[in-house]
Amino acid sequence: YTTAAGLLGMLKDYNINNRDLTIRATHCNYLNDKSEFFWGIKLCCNAIYEYEKQNPIPEEKRLSKYIKNPYDESTTELFWFYSAYINNIDYGFPYLISFSRAKDSLPMWGMYAKQGNGIALVFDEDKLEANFSKDKCQDCIYCQDDETAPVMGIIKEEYEEYLSTISNKKNDLSNWCTALAEIRLHNMYRKIGSYAKHKSFEYEK
Known about the structure:
mainly alpha; two-stranded parallel ribbon; two-stranded antiparallel ribbon; 5% strand
């Protein structure tokens, strides 16, 4: 769903040699609601605390001790660091683009297509997904504020990989392990923050 001006923007580079639409993803800090990404980070942090309650993880190996306030700048230091290097786009702040399975939705027309005076572009989902790796083309995860169950599978997978990596390290407080933990948290934040949306937006599909 977009406006006519949005479509013209996608077509500005169109010519006989370039028959593709140009659709640009948006840096997460410049979305209409940039708090969405950080809401996802907060949800991720809550899920990590919950996972640690449910599993016998030694205190010294817990990721939660590296968690900071999701809205604090120190939480996003790695995002800023990686975002400074164009070749590290897979590690810095994510760029996001949203497609919808709601093919003819009145709220979507109203919100994103100029009160019904815009357009809706329809894509072949299989062809669209064929251009992206699995981790870059996923359904949104719709949750209530404190609902951690929908993201617990991601937490479990990431946490087990982290524990496996540090299992042979005697001193988990070393600089190496601290950096590893922070990078793992960074990965979790990207995997959940990029896709988690509040349940109230579930109609967008």
